[in-house]
Amino acid sequence: MPGIVIVGVQWGDEGKGKATDLLGERTDWVVKFNGGNNAGHTVVIGDEKYALHLLPSGILSPGVTPVIGNGVVVDLEVLFAELEALNARGLDTSRLKISANAHIITQYHRTLDKVTERFLGKRQIGTTGRGIGPAYADKINRVGIRVQDLFDENILRQKVEGALDQKNHLLVKVFNRRSITVDEVVEDLLAYAERVRPMVADTSLLLNEALDAGDVVVFEGGQATMLDVDHGTYPFVTSSSATAGGASTGSGVGPNRLDRIVGIVKAYTTRVGSGPFPTELFDESGDWLRSRGFEFGTTTGRPRRVGWYDAPITRYATRINGITDLVLTKLDILGGLEQIPVCVAYDVDGVRYDDLPVNQTDFHHAKPIHEYYPGWSEDISTARTFDDLPQNAQDYVLALEKMSGTRISVIGVGPARDQVIVRHNLVD
């Protein structure tokens, strides 16, 4: 089963990096197929902690070829800052491949992202201000800059001129900002051209050849299902396809090459930014969960919104993605609770919904209907088999599995690489 897609089930930050890393020893290629440097994840290896923002987590595994696919938007400054930081810690990053068709985040994208968000006032989306949304908008509007454009200065200049024609009017006349010159943008981008050239390839061809050869290729999604531009809580979403279907469009690999879809889900729920969140906690329980789980953004440092496990969301994500296996992370965080609430359905103005309401307004007003499960006090961080878990922890996992619509194959019991329980192998 060489083609494995890893996607987030909730609103991101579920631990996808750790899941990808778990497959590392049996993986030949790891592909990031969507998003930009707004999707940070932390991987712990031994005593070392690595915070990645743009790079695929496979960059940390010897022998694995990491790939930034065509569906990603690339901030070149961030790219080389991350590479240099890893090199300084003795890691080999020379295997990295970048799609020639990936789009580039420019300085005007970052500027527009920040001023536009402020302009929205109370209607803010909650973006990270890193230019991701504007870069994707230019891609769809067919005025984007691609990595391959760095190698033809005439083409690059023409494209930047076309993009700035409209944007400078917006910056000056609407946002009262200075105009951005073509020369400063072109000069900034060309400074990276020769540094990035050795990494650029036809990654679609490389990946299909790898699959033909029987290599194991892992497709690593940024963000998560509920942030997908089509299937998430629109408009409070990211600007790319974060679901399993995005793995094909964002990498140039056909859907028939994707053999297993692995969904990553926390034992509770978190969200960053604005938008509906039915199980969100505003009391001491929320403060406890946030503090115990250290729920602060890897990229932004922002406190995450926290809530109990939401079974309807997991069922929805299982259906949308075609999930074959779930990786349940951070089960250890729930230790010490007398009872653990689980959202099993929603109440919307007195009407019960066992699945997500089709209407966004209804979802915004949804109240969780909880069932309660006995907690446990034992430290489970050393558990390595399912039977090592306390009976109440086992019962909790089995209850989530039953209501989620697919099997829970891996359970995370701590932040380190080896703190996992494998019930079913993800690579057969």
Describe this structure in words.
With 428 residues, the chain is α/β, with parallel strands linked by helices. The chain folds into three domains: 3-100 and 200-262, Adenylosuccinate Synthetase, subunit A, domain 1 (Adenylosuccinate Synthetase, Chain A, domain 1); 103-194, Adenylosuccinate Synthetase, subunit A, domain 2 (Orthogonal Bundle); 265-422, Adenylosuccinate Synthetase, Chain A, domain 3. It is 31% helix and 20% strand. It is built from 13 helices and 20 strands. The strands form five sheets. The protein has a ten-stranded mixed sheet with strand order 9-7-5-2-10-1-11-15-19-20, with helices on both faces. Strands 14, 16, 17 and 18 form a four-stranded mixed sheet that branches. A hairpin with a 2-residue loop joins strand 3 and strand 4 (48-52). Helix 3 (107-120) crosses helix 4 (132-140). The protein is globular and about 65 Å long. The model has no long low-confidence stretch (mean pLDDT 91).
